[in-house]
Amino acid sequence: MGLTRVLACITTVTAALIGAPATSAAAPMASPSPRSDVCTAFDPVHGVVVLFGGAKDIDLFADTWTWDGTAWTKRSPAHHPAPRALCAMAFDAARGLIVLFGGVGKGTRALADTWTWDGKDWTKRSPAHHPPARSGMEMAYDKTDDRVVLFGGYESDRSRVFTDTWVWDGKDWTKRSPAHHPPRRQGFALAFDAAHRDVVMFGGVDRGGYRHDETWTWDGKDWTERSPGHRPAARSDEGLAFDPAGGGVVMFGGNDGFRVFADTWAWDGKDWTKQAPAHHPSGRAEMGMAYDAAHREVVVFGGFRFDFLGDTWTWDGRDWTER
């Protein structure tokens, strides 16, 4: 799983971290425990960011939390997915539900189950078709197609890294056959850019450990590799989210196998621009990151940087604030 890979890489590094953390602020009275590889998505129906699962060392979580712009609340649903990390989650706007797929479960077994969250409880779905079991993939809601799109990931033993594209229509998964697609990868970042009405992908790592610095977009039918004048360094396990204040999407963190990044970049539909916030989270990878439309800010939780993190930060388009 991605956690083990990052542990192996990071514990052997001697290179300095890019950047330093800002001065710590008051912590919420309650929050998820320190962890990485969580699943996050914004639920506009209830105006909260939803967080599920994650991992710390060999422990896997199956708890559900919501962030209301001020504090985290632990939920107690009657049903929930099994403990897991490295799953994918996105809000299905056409159906008004959060969709969760796959991940890695106990015994590092890749999962292929589909669940939906309605704000109160989790429901296991029984689609006629679904992607093969995997983890390390990403999903985003594609407004142009009114479907959730899923790409990539890998099997639990990493014998197979995927390059397939699937879409969820609320009832079933359908494998798409685009004329073009990114090379095989996992640990990349994916987000819907509402300003330009396409899904944006950056980075990721292949089976051999090669990190990518490519930018791809999905328009509902095909993938297109973009050619920006500037680009972030190659990396994996970064965070990406829609940022209307920046006119596109914002990216934070990740790692290249030697360094853990703490840089912030903005994509405006054509090019990447490195941001210069006065404050920022410490360098990290494998954190949860989502755009909170109710409070018009991007939320980051946890991740890994030599140890598991449990802090919460928000981005307002100019600066990061620890909550």
What does this protein look like?
- The protein is mainly beta and 323 residues long.
- Helices cover 3% and strands 38% of the residues.
- It has 1 helix and 26 strands.
- It has one helix spanning 2-10, and strands at residues 39-43, 48-52, 55-56, 59-60, 64-67, 72-75, 88-92, 97-104, 110-117, 122-124, 138-142, 147-151, 165-168, 173-176, 189-193, 198-202, 215-218, 223-225, 239-243, 248-252, 264-267, 272-274, 288-292, 297-304, 308-315, 320-322.
- The strands form 7 sheets. The chain has a 4-stranded antiparallel sheet, with no helix packed on it. The protein has a 4-stranded antiparallel sheet with strand order 7-8-9-10, with no helix packed on it.
Architecture blueprint of SSEs:
Elements: H1 2-10, E1 39-43, E2 48-52, E3 55-56, E4 59-60, E5 64-67, E6 72-75, E7 88-92, E8 97-104, E9 110-117, E10 122-124, E11 138-142, E12 147-151, E13 165-168, E14 173-176, E15 189-193, E16 198-202, E17 215-218, E18 223-225, E19 239-243, E20 248-252, E21 264-267, E22 272-274, E23 288-292, E24 297-304, E25 308-315, E26 320-322
Antiparallel strand pairs: 1-2, 2-5, 3-4, 5-6, 7-8, 8-9, 9-10, 11-12, 12-13, 13-14, 15-16, 16-17, 17-18, 19-20, 20-21, 21-22, 23-24, 24-25, 25-26
